[in-house]
Design goal:
The chain has 383 residues and is an alpha+beta fold. The chain has 11 helices and 10 strands. The chain has a 4-stranded mixed beta sheet. It has a 4-stranded antiparallel beta sheet with strand order 2-3-7-6, with no helix packed on it. α4 runs antiparallel to α5.
């Protein structure tokens, strides 16, 4: 149901390659990875070999140099195979982009080759046990000590934690509020860094989620990303793209659920005819397809705005994240219903998609916060 007529020849080729990868490398294993809580690092590295480890990183730094419009196509297509792995790759790419965009030449040389090849995995550490939606209230401290910083605090719900090698950590170097926050790059082997247990989750089981504990982690001052006090701005700029990635992953998961529903209803019979011939069920499928197409259009509009540097991009990214993740979950839930009892069985893969897509409405900023961002943009335009 993708609006392929709006894609360039290069984008069509990118979608074809990515879809082949998703169907060959992700889809056949997605249910088993979920059940076994297995993080397929080897498969992530195969994705990186196709250029998907540094989607937005400039080519001179080892990346693919693609646009946000290309990126939402990539992550939607990957998520048709497994939303959990596509979601992690979206976060990994956000980390790589932040280092490419805000890092020094030495920082780019140090970390980007490994991130782009996925020999080095990345995680993003903003959320804390007491600072989720109110990210500017974070309490992790970074104290300057000569040519070093000493970081102390706890980060919560960190995707890839324990398996990732590079962590962008937001910590407070100044007073209260967003202007007192600075970004740092912490490595897994830094003394004082440890991780909580892998969380028992409803979905996203194919990637680890742990606390990141910083107990006096001492790092050189050249690990600071950008200037002191710029961390919150850097974090929010990263999240604009991250929200588009997660929105696209919701589209891909829901698209897979819709395709499976079409096949199931065509195969199943009731009262002497295929279920797909029932007009009531056809109308449900039509609603699902229409809503997904509308959500996809909004995601692509937001991606285009971010590529162009449109001042409205922040609000559009929030709109797209909220609408696409709500729509994706709703479509997947209705797909489960259309499968009847089979939808509730793990082997059909539908219930996994439902569980995976549910968290998309929470991470990268809850959908309630997305509404706050949109409303703030509307009210500020009246001042």
């Amino acid at each position: 149901m993708s609006a392929v007529t709006t894609l360039t020849e290069d984008q069509l080729a990118l979608a074809e390659v990515t879809l082949d990868f998703a169907q060959e490398q992700l889809a056949p294993h997605a249910v088993a990875w979920d059940q076994e809580k297995y993080f397929p690092v080897d498969v992530i590295r195969r994705a990186a070999a196709l250029g998907l480890g540094g989607v937005y990183v400039r080519e001179e730094h080892g990346g693919s140099g693609l646009t946000r419009a290309d990126g939402v196509l990539v992550f939607e297509t990957l998520a048709t195979g497994c939303p959990s792995i596509a979601g992690y790759l979206s976060i990994h790419n956000m980390v790589a982009w932040m280092i490419d965009r805000y890092g020094s030449p030495a920082q780019r040389d140090r970390w980007l080759p490994g991130l782009c090849s996925a020999q080095t995995l990345g995680s993003y550490c903003l959320t804390e046990p007491g600072a989720g939606s109110d990210a500017a209230a974070l309490r992790t401290r970074a104290e300057r000590d000569g040519e070093h910083y000493v970081l102390t605090g706890v980060k919560q719900f960190i995707s890839g934690a324990g398996s990732s090698d590079v962590y962008i950590v937001l910590a407070r170097t100044g007073g209260d509020g967003p202007r007192g926050i600075t970004a740092f790059v912490v490595e897994r082997d830094d003394p004082g860094l440890s991780f909580g247990a892998n969380e028992l989750k409803m979905g996203w089981n194919a990637q680890p989620t742990r606390q990141v504990v910083l107990d006096g982690v001492r790092i050189p001052a050249d690990r600071r990303l950008g200037a002191e006090g710029d961390g919150f701005r850097i974090a929010m700029h990263g999240l604009n793209g991250g929200r588009l990635g997660i929105a696209a992953c919701s589209l891909g998961g829901a698209r897979s659920a819709l395709d499976r529903s079409l096949a199931h209803l065509a195969d199943r019979e009731a009262f002497g005819a295929p279920l797909l011939h029932a007009q009531a069920l056809q109308f449900r499928l039509a609603d699902m397809a229409t809503e997904l197409t509308a959500a996809r259009a909004l995601v692509r509009e937001a991606a285009d705005a971010l590529d162009r540097g449109d001042p409205a991009a922040v609000q559009l990214c929030a709109m797209a994240k909220r609408f696409a993740t709500d729509t994706g979950f709703s479509v997947a839930d209705r797909a489960l219903q259309l499968h009847g009892g089979y939808g509730y069985l793990s082997e059909y893969g539908i219930e996994k998609i439902v569980r995976d897509l549910r968290v998309h409405r929470i991470l990268e900023g809850t959908n309630e916060i997305m509404n706050v961002i949109v409303a703030r943009g509307l009210t500020e335009s009246l001042r």
